[in-house]
Amino acid sequence: MESICPIDSRCANEIAALLSPPSPLQVQEYYHKLLSRRNCSSIIVKQDGNFGKGVYAAVDFNEEELVLKDQMLVGVQHSSNKIDCFVCSSCFCFIGSVELQIGRRLYLQELGASGSHGCDMSDSSNTSKYNHDTDSSDGEDNSYEKKEDGDGECSFGGSEAKVHLPEGVVQSLMNGHMRLPYSKEFSMPPAVPCPGGCGESFYCSTSCAEADWESCHSLICTGEWSDTARREALLKFIKHANETNDIFLLAAKAISSTILRYHKLKERCLLEKGKHDKSHLSNHCDLTILSEAWRPIAMGHKRRWWDCIALPDDISSSDEVAFRMQIRDLAFESLQLLTTAIFDRECEPLFSLEIYGHIIGMFEQNNLDLVVASPVEDYFLYIDDLTYPEKEKAEEITRPILDALGEDYSICCQGTAFFPLQSCMNHSCCPNAKAFKREEDRDGQATIIALRSIRKGEEITISYVDEDHPYEERQASLADYGFKCRCPKCVEEQP
Ligand SMILES: C[S@@+](CC[C@H](N)C(=O)[O-])C[C@H]1O[C@@H](n2cnc3c(N)ncnc32)[C@H](O)[C@@H]1O
Hints:
Keywords: Metal-binding, Zinc, Zinc-finger. This is SET domain-containing protein. InterPro entries: ATXR2-like (IPR044237), SET_dom (IPR001214), SET_dom_sf (IPR046341), Znf_MYND (IPR002893). This protein has 495 residues and is of the alpha+beta class. The protein has two domains: 383 residues, no CATH class; 85 residues, SET domain (Beta-clip-like, Beta Complex). A hairpin with an 8-residue loop joins strand 6 and strand 7. About 8% of the residues have low confidence. The site of S-adenosylmethionine has 17 residues, from strand 2 and helix 12.
């Protein structure tokens, strides 16, 4: 039976207003302000009428030059990756120490939390279609590079069964009693716990902790500070997301940040009007303020999740309607749990299925993989590069640890994020730029690099798919985005 969300009909007018596409003028103003706030004058965003918004060069760029570093609007580390990588919940840089990263991972793996928070819909609901390439001297993704020693054997991270370390060693790594040789060369900021005490979120600095708290975490923190009913409801919502699709956690962040922005804007508005006496505050939704709070999300290109999600290969077209209905039901299940946890009467339209579906659909159509290279990998590569006798001495200590980590030693931080500027970049099968993490890019920002020289005024394009694939395959992949590509390469190769 079709899931019915009563808020959809109750708030139909407000929902229609929130989902109406922004005018070209609103687009221009919003991105102009965003770019000025970031002191970025080398690109502009405008709506040219062909494919909606696009990003254009405001200066000339040379080949390999940095075009853009884009700070995410919202991002999450994949649930399954949280065991392997201990990162700041705001900027996603690695925190703690090499020893803590390793000890924590081995401890959690030992506990049986083996990263199998099964994502039932993983094939069909991948919300990060665009990937970040990573830097390496040979142009390959160095996150997974294995090194070979003199006699051609893989010198570490082999596929053999993992060797267990004594519990005492794991504990000593975690609590800092055991120091690994040369680990000081790979220092990381100490972990700052969440101010709400949830024990789930940690940060690289108090400023990151405060920024996350202010922007969204204060509403979705499961720490002792929040009342029991709310905490239990949040925990149910999080469990459901971990068991089905962690994109729901990202949607919860988007909704929380909109609610918090709404209340801040309302407060400011009342102060400006001189109404300091809070007893006069109405608890009705002020649509003008809600639309302003929603603006960063309103700007993203979006369709409903269950309408735009690609049909998985194993679902026949005769089952398509049932499949889309299943996705809609799943979203409704998640939304009901979130509503129980953080419902806000003044922001009621945000808890409609229509809005929830569009937020997830926006992630589906725009998100970029969140990738941060691991300093643990760098550490073992460093040890491997040492020469006799330092290498032998160090390896006496590091070898059993590497054997315990197995081939997972190099796992990087992985997640998905929405980037306000990168998501305005249109696709081309002969792109002039690409998302590419350089050696120095060690946080969750998106990095866009010029693939060739780009002239002022040219549109900056990236490829959403592997542009080296044959024409038919590219078009099939791009069908997931709901468009047929008409870039020069496709026009030329069209049969
Ligand atoms: C990530 S968004 C890019 C920004 C988008 N133009 C906007 O207005 O926000 C992706 C969407 O832009 C449009 N688009 C991007 N590249 C395109 C292309 N080469 N041909 C047709 N449509 C394209 C499609 O609607 C696609 O789903």
